[in-house]
From TrEMBL:
Organism: Noviherbaspirillum pedocola
Any one GO CC term of the record: plasma membrane
UniProt name for this protein: histidine kinase
TM regions (residue ranges): 21-41, 182-204
UniProt key word Phosphoprotein: yes
């Protein structure tokens, strides 16, 4: 049964770094400028209202000075030309109304809108004045209502003086303030955009140089880049690139070395096969022919074994994908390997023992772990003399999966225990004991152990031979 993995959606390509930086700089700046313009515009309107309200209050006070009491009635003697002297802008029109102490109409525009109820007195001026907006004859106006005490010997009370002004002048001033504010802020944004573009272009120059250096570098040049040529924030990226190229260089060098060693190792058996085949073609005796064919079969078996070892080593060098890893039982894998190699141990008259806990689990690849255990046990059986002893132990201790293989064979000298993990290297004692080996077993074991984040150690065994200890995280 096969399962297809749903392909992940392709990641959308990122746009220009320069464009993104400019957008992240200019868009917030534009928003702040708009907010600042609105705030400045409102502050300017408040200042304009304050100035024009002061003019309205001055007009109302001028009228109040002409309000008197005559024959028990409130009267006012104010020609319009007197009000015109307080007008500050030709675009505005002034209206006024004077009411007596009982609210009766005295002078001015009788239909001027009344003061709204519950309208609070202005705290800006010491006078008893209130300001409000209204519509008068289809035109919006701003009105100042001043309470003015009036009295004589016959009466005493408070008169109401209202002075209204159309808003054309205020609106024109507001438009001028708005246009001036927007123009200045737009010029500020434009200047900031130009400066930001120049700054971003200058700041990104080292990154562009690094890009050109990467683009024009030869495919075989895997040397590192100079991290001092870029900014501090980009140095970790350059360091990561250098580290990656270093690992890539080591991988390519290992592959080249592996190909060279593999071709050298395969050339000998293939040459032997060709020679044996030529001898078989020239042989006339059936017995001699049979001996040659048997030699060809043995050479073929040895070549197949070598090729399988080379493929296993290449796979271990290449690494494992995450999907190839899963929960496995190290005890079950080791038990299976021991059963497979038991006939070989029996043929060599060896005492093969297995001590395994019921369940020692870990995360790994079952096929590679099987190959690892088979290599180690095969080596122990091959290099242990007859009537010798080989012990295999699997246990779980303190969060670690432990595999030990101990034998009473020839062992490995202390000076060779590091080199035996190199591909195609064989210790002198191993060559004397088994001249047909390829020198790949421990190299394969080391790579498989590293793929599973484990550790391998070679020690002198209690039986006089070699003790191999493997540790894996559970």
């Amino acid at each position: 049964m096969f399962f297809s993995k749903t392909p992940e959606p392709a990641q959308r390509a990122l746009g220009s770094l320069r464009g993104q930086l400019l957008r992240w700089l200019l868009i917030p700046l534009t928003v702040l400028v708009v907010i600042n313009s609105v705030s400045a515009y409102r502050n300017a309107l408040d200042a304009a209202d304050l100035a024009y309200d002061r003019s309205l209050l001055a007009s109302a006070r001028a009228l109040a000075e002409r309000v008197t009491v005559a024959n028990g009635h409130v009267v006012v003697d104010v020609p319009y030309v007197a009000l015109d002297s307080f007008e500050t802008d030709a675009l505005g029109r002034l209206y006024y109304k004077v009411s007596g102490i009982h609210g009766e109409f005295v002078s001015g525009y009788e239909d001027l809108p009344p003061v709204p109820k519950d309208l609070k007195r202005s705290d800006i001026y010491p006078a008893l004045v209130r300001f409000y907006h209204a519509n008068y004859r289809g035109t919006p106006v701003r009105i100042a209502a001043l309470l003015d005490p009036v009295y004589d010997d016959s009466m005493r009370g408070i008169a109401l003086i209202q002075v209204g002004e159309s808003l054309e002048a205020r609106r024109e001033l507001s438009r001028r303030i708005l246009i001036d504010t927007v123009w200045r802020q737009a010029a500020l944004v434009a200047a900031a955009a130009v400066l930001a573009w120049i700054a971003v272009r200058f700041v990104l120059r080292p990154l562009m140089r690094l890009t050109d250096e990467v683009a024009h570098r030869a495919p075989t040049d895997l040397s590192g880049f100079d991290a001092n040529g870029v900014h501090r924030e980009l140095r970790p990226m350059v360091a990561a690139m250098n580290d990656y190229m270093g690992r890539l260089d080591a991988l390519i060098a290992g592959q080249r070395r592996f190909i060279a060693d593999a071709s050298h190792q395969l050339r000998t058996p293939l040459t032997v096969l060709k020679t044996q085949a030529e001898l078989a073609l020239r042989a006339n005796d059936a017995a001699a022919m049979r001996d040659i064919v048997e030699g060809i079969a043995r050479t073929t078996d040895s070549t197949v074994h070598l090729a399988n070892r080379l493929l296993t080593l290449a796979r271990a060098d290449h690494g494992l994908a995450e999907g190839e890893m899963g929960p496995v039982s190290l005890s079950e894998i080791t038990r299976s390997v021991a059963l497979e190699l038991a006939p070989q141990a029996l043929a060599g008259k060896l005492d093969l023992s297995l001590e395994a806990d019921t369940e020692v689990g870990m995360r790994g690849n079952a096929l590679l772990l099987h190959e690892m255990a088979a290599n180690l046990l095969d080596n122990a059986i091959r290099y242990t003399p007859p009537l010798g002893k080989v012990a295999v132990r699997v246990a779980s201790r303190e969060g670690v999966a432990l595999l030990e293989i101990e034998d009473s064979g020839c062992g490995i000298a202390q000076a060779d225990r590091e080199r035996v993990f190199e591909p195609f290297y064989r210790a002198p004692g191993a060559q004397q004991r088994n001249g047909g080996g390829a020198g790949l077993g421990l190299a394969i074991v080391r790579d498989i152990v590293e793929l599973h984040h484990g550790a391998i150690r070679l020690d002198d065994g209690a039986y006089g031979g070699l003790k191999v200890t493997l540790r894996f995280p559970v």
